[in-house]
């Protein structure tokens, strides 16, 4: 254990500001323009209906913590949220059960294996390991408040809608297509159950998880949802406090560690932002205290991340000064007298 909750102290935050509105607007347009013709990557097809997506779609949106938004391209086009939901599910469960409980039950460390790996569960004594892989997302779903599966589903749909600032609806065709082909997720849920690590019915849990993955969102929605995590849990458009600032911090640390599948390390190294992607081509990237970027384009790289989305976010991370790890040297004239360093 690195720290315990009893050691926590009141925290100041370390963030900054976005450039002026007009500059964010023109850089969002520049990012879109740069990558709109890039046609590398393949549309996902392991969920049959996703193969029908139009590969030319590309939407980009930036949402600022002051409520301003910047939208370009197909930023209003609906697509299934898929694994991007895991980020917001995790936030809702942390809000309901607290930091220590969720850390112990779901975990916070990487598996080093694919997001839908069965063997990762076996190798870790039946522990789901982290909330961004399917095993962890299934246990997160099972921990949702609610006396019945229907109540849990409604809690999730309402919670994700609060992040988006509008009522989200499920795409019934995506749900049916995935339910007909998701034997692997059912196997993972059964395996967690066999270890005593799933406190709900496995097939009901898979059903709810599949519904939440089929919720329809837009790139604009993802930007607003991410900006809520960047804004201490307050939706910057509606003003609603959706989760606490501590939950946002915990959620963003998980996205930084494992939000971009097995390329999470490379993503953090190159782009320096917590982010989560999904197989329908959505990505949300969050700049704490500043805002968030939502991107959608269905062509994916071999790790399952949207090619245009990644490139556009990488550009904006640099151009808007979002990389969490970047700093400039302090000018010599601003340095404190250094007699204490002797
Ligand atoms: N519903 C998908 C699955 O469970 C989500 C995958 C993803 O977006 O990573 O396989």
Detailed description of the structure:
- The protein is α+β, with helices and mostly antiparallel strands and 342 residues long.
- It has one domain: DD-peptidase/beta-lactamase superfamily (Beta-lactamase), CATH 3.40.710.10.
- 42% of the residues lie in helices and 10% in strands.
- The protein has 13 helices and nine strands.
- The strands form three sheets. Strands 3-2-8-7-6 form a five-stranded antiparallel β-sheet, sandwiched between helices. A two-stranded antiparallel ribbon has the order 1-9. It has a two-stranded antiparallel sheet with strand order 4-5.
- Strand 6 and strand 7 form a beta hairpin.
- The longest helix is centred in the middle third of the chain and has 16 residues.
- The protein is globular, with a radius of gyration of 20 Å.
- It starts with 20 loop residues before the first helix and ends in a 23-residue tail after the last helix.
- 51% of the residues are buried.
- The mean pLDDT is 93.
- The structure holds glutamic acid (GLU).
- The site of glutamic acid has 11 residues, from loops.
- Glutamic acid binds next to loops.
